[in-house]
Structures are given as C-alpha cells and as structure tokens.
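Consider the subject:
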Amino acid sequence: MDLPRADGSAESAELRRRLAEAEETLRAIREGEVDALVIRGAARDEVFALGSEDSYRTFMETMEIGAAALDADGKLVYVNAALQALLGAGSQELQHADLVQWVGPAGELALRRLIDRCARGGRHREQLAIVGASGERTVEVTAAPLELAFGRGYALTFTDVTERFEAVAASEGERIGHAVLALSNDAVVVCNAAGTITQANAKVRQFLDGASTGLQFDEAFPLTFAMSSGLLGPADLVELARSGSSVGPIEAVLRDDAGKRTLLVGAGPLRGAGDGASGSIITLSDVTDQRAAERRQRLLMGELTHRVKNTLTLVLSIANRTIAGSRDLAEFRTAFGRRLEALAATHNLLAEDFSAGLTLEDLAVAELTPYIAVGSERLTLEGLQHRLNSDTAVALGLIFHELVTNAVKYGALSNERGRVSLTAERSGGELEIIWCEEGGPTVLPPSRHGFGQTLILRGLGSSGPKPTTLDYRPEGVLCRMHVATSALIADADPAAAG
C-alpha cells in the first residue's frame, strides 16, 4: 500500500513540476524573456522568434536605421529607438496607436500597400514620404515576413534617404543650371556670398579676354551705372542680390579694350537648400548697337519732322507764288503740278539713302534724264561729286527743275543743236555751281518776273555765301549758284578733299 501511494505521489509531483515549468515558460513568453521557442516535430524542428531583449531586440537596437516588428494585423510588436526618433514618437505612443497612421496620409497608403504585398510572400521595398520629427522626409521601407511565436508577422526597416534624394536633386538642378547658362543669349555669371564669380557661361568671353571664375565681380566688370549718380557700384549690385533683392535690368557702361559698351544688367538672389540666398546670379546684355540704333532713330525722326515742316512751308510758298503768276487755273494746275513732282522726286532720292546724302549729279540726272541722255555730247556734267545735306538738296533740286524746264521750253534743250553744261568747283569756303546754255534759240529777257525766276534766285535763301545770279545772255542762259561748304556732307573726290 505504501508503494502505490509513494508512486502516486511521485507522479503527481512530476505533473506539478511540469505544470510549473509550463507556467514559467508562458510567463517568460508574455514578458519577453524568451528569445525563441523550439518545437520538435516529426520531420523537423521549428524555431519561432519570440523577441527577447537579449536577442533580436538587442540586435534591432544596435541598428542605425529604423526597425519595427508588426503582427499579422499590422499591430506594432516592437519598435527600436532609431525609428522612434525618426517618427518623433515614443514607444508607448506607437504601441497605443497604429504605426501606419504615424507616417502621414500619403505614407500610410503606401505602407499598407507594401504590407499587403509582403503578406503574399517575399521581401518588398518601396520609397515613401513621411512626416517625421524633423519635417517631411523620404524613406525607403523594406518589409519581409517574420515568424513569431504566436503566428506570422512582418519585419520593417526604415532607411532615411532624404539627403541622398536632395543630393541627386541638387546635382540635377546644377546640370539644368549649366544647361540654362549655356543656352542663354545673355552673358550670365554666378557669384558666391563673397561676390566671387564661381560660374560663367561662354557669352561672358565677349567682355573678358581671360577666365572670369575666381575674380571678384566688380574686378571683372568695372561698371558705371548711368542713373545712380555714383551711389551704386558693381559690388553694391552683388550685395543687394545676395541679400534677397532682385535688381534691374538697369543700364550701365563698361569700358574695356573694345571701347565703351552699353549694357543692361540684372541681378537676383541664388537660393540654395536653406531659406537664405547663397549668392547671386547676374545677367549682362550688350545693347550698344541697340542704343546706337535708337539714337539714330531719334535723329531721323527729328530730321523727318524738320523736313516735313519745311516741305509744307515750301509747298505753300510755291502754291502762292505760282497762282500769282498764272493767267488761269489751267496754267496754275500745270505749273504747280510740275513743281510738286520735282519736289517729290528730290525727296524720293533723299529717302533712298538719307545718311549718305545726295550728290549734285544725282539731282541733275534726275531732272535732265527725261529730256536728254546723260552720255550725250550735248550735255556736260563735271565736278558734281559733292554731297549735300537734305535742305540744300531740296533747294537745288527745285532750282535745277526750273532751269531744265526753261531750257526745254525756250532754251538749249528746245532744239537739237543746243548744249547744256553743269559744273561745280570748290574754292575756299564755298562751292560754285554754274549752269550754262549754248546753241539754243536767241534768248530774250522775260517780259515779266515769274515765280520760276524768283525760285532760282532765292531758292538757296541766305545759306549761300553769295547770292545766285541769273544772266539771260543772247547765246544762252548763265546761272551761278553758291553753296557754303558747311552744306556738304562729304567729298567723294580725294583730290578735292585734300
């Protein structure tokens, strides 16, 4: 009897011991004191990681990147200190909420999608933007299945790749910046905070013989700003841009070996990754030719206004004098019309090349060509290479028209034997122009003093050094005109010029 009781007591004690060990094991599992659980099976042993602080928790804590373990429902089992710092939340905060919600709306969607893919097997990776302790960050999240004692879960790692992305973006931005610099039609320089040129495009070489990088901006471009009264200099321009202000474009003058150039200069801040400006970017556009063209245009407009006023006054005078000397409306219409045509012909010639002016020969040929060939033996043109300003050209054009008209009607060009010579000779401060007719019908002085004669004698006004003379010789008309050398634009004859 004693033995069975002893055997029964021993069995009961063994059961109680095993139960105590099981309870201790469960307690250790609950409290995280067990690294792994090994279950022996018929075919093979299975090892389930249980996450003791001495094993994978210790390993996760040594990782510099964020790491977390989730259960099958996506609930947080463990999160290391690196991930807590990245998200800006403590372990308790994360434990009482869904980890997925801590990465922000956009990151939450991407993270849930990543976990769903991981649930179907395999390791998966995705980049997403999260809102962390230091603001928005770009992280690369890797998810892989993880066997836990109580079932399957997921191991997640969070690698902050923000700086890598910013470096790539900066590199891409620099590449794009170089491309923009190369394609710009203007000269462009980039200066650092100290005002030193760090980059420049090829257009800068039109202003500098050597390299510009490494030079101070005011040293490379000693600009004078037209409207600044000396208060703004190149260094001030760089400083204004560096402080965040945009300047210009404003006009400046650059004096170099090529002479004086007019530039339009603009400047603005060069912003880096931070809030402030890290330097300045300056554009320089050469508008020297454009400004010269504008000055020439203003000159031409002034000349045009002056010429129109003079022409209208002249037309009014021609009309009044012609009607006073006409016997009837038909005679007035004919005479006035021809004089306007002569005036228009001279203006047409002037319009063809205003800057060069007209020569005496241009005016004479325009009036004589309808009646006699320029190469004819009956016509002599000598010394007519002198160029005239516009006012003198208009006056002489009208005088030549009256002389030719009279010669065609009554003088040397009214028959086949008459001859005309038009010569000019420069002497001292004047140019004497002589119109001489020979071989035509005998000339008689006019019975009345008409407007044509008045125009010939007074057409040059008081600008000539001597008055015009008109001599009605029996053998032909002789007219002497005098033009001051100040009315000449240039002399095409080198000998005369000397």
About this structure: The longest strand covers residues 135-148. The domain at 292-497 is CATH 3.30.565.10 (Heat Shock Protein 90). Residues 214 and 345 are 62 Å apart (CA to CA). The chain has three domains: 45-160, 165-286, 292-497.
